[in-house]
UniProtKB/TrEMBL annotation:
GO terms for molecular function: identical protein binding; RNA binding; S-adenosylmethionine-dependent methyltransferase activity; tRNA methyltransferase activity. Its EC number is 2.1.1.207. Belongs to the class IV-like SAM-binding methyltransferase superfamily. RNA methyltransferase TrmH family. TrmL subfamily. InterPro entries: Alpha/beta_knot_MTases (IPR029028), SpoU_MeTrfase (IPR001537), TrmL (IPR016914), tRNA_m1G_MTases_N (IPR029026). It comes from Hominimerdicola aceti. This is Putative tRNA (cytidine(34)-2'-O)-methyltransferase. It is found in: Cytoplasm. It catalyses: 5-carboxymethylaminomethyluridine(34) in tRNA(Leu) + S-adenosyl-L-methionine = 5-carboxymethylaminomethyl-2'-O-methyluridine(34) in tRNA(Leu) + S-adenosyl-L-homocysteine + H(+); cytidine(34) in tRNA + S-adenosyl-L-methionine = 2'-O-methylcytidine(34) in tRNA + S-adenosyl-L-homocysteine + H(+). Pfam families: SpoU_methylase (PF00588). GO terms for biological process: wobble position ribose methylation. GO terms for cellular component: cytoplasm. It comes from the Bacteria. CDD domains: SpoU-like_TrmL.
């Protein structure tokens, strides 16, 4: 089985990227960051959101989307409010690399990329009158759907508490 890969294309908000890095760390997903960013990787806000997990991440950086695609192969799923399929209706394969790809907080993914890959564009259902979910929430929803389908590989299913005590 291959690893889940989370790709952020031109992320702009350091707190979102920090939260997403924490999600990657606790799930074992690799984080791929495509430049340009709206912050510096050393930004305090970025590290504050996932500081104690930063050394547990597998991070890859790319100069642009062409650089990313030239160095990676597998199944690519483009998360967009314009997707034809619902994210939970997709069968994410376990026998090859899976990349779930998210765009900028303010613009999403490039229209050309979506136009060229309509069969791989997926969406998270939401009310039509509202714009979109927060990026870090969207990544967490998508990440855990893939991992659920894969039966949560290498993730503990048992809780940390072994005995409950209740105040009377």
């Amino acid at each position: 089985m291959n690893r889940l890969n989370i790709v952020l294309v031109e992320p702009q908000i350091p707190q979102n990227t920090g939260n997403i890095s924490r999600t990657c760390a606790v799930t074992g997903a690799a984080l791929h960051l495509v430049k340009p960013y709206g912050f510096e990787i050393s930004d305090k806000k970025l590290k504050r959101a996932g500081l104690d997990y930063w050394d547990k991440l597998e991070i890859h950086e790319y100069d642009d989307l062409d650089d990313f695609f030239s160095k990676n192969s597998g199944e690519f799923y483009f998360f967009t409010t314009k997707g034809r399929m619902v994210h939970s209706d997709v069968d994410y394969p376990q026998d090859r690399e899976v990349y779930i790809i998210f765009g900028r907080e303010d613009k999403g993914l490039p229209e050309k990329l979506l136009y060229e890959n309509p069969q791989s564009c997926v969406r998270i259902p939401m009310r039509k009158t509202l714009r979109s979910l927060n990026l870090s929430n969207s990544v967490a929803i998508a990440c855990y759907e893939v991992l659920r389908q894969w039966n949560y590989p290498d993730l503990g299913r048992e809780g940390k508490l072994t005995q409950y005590t209740w105040d009377e």
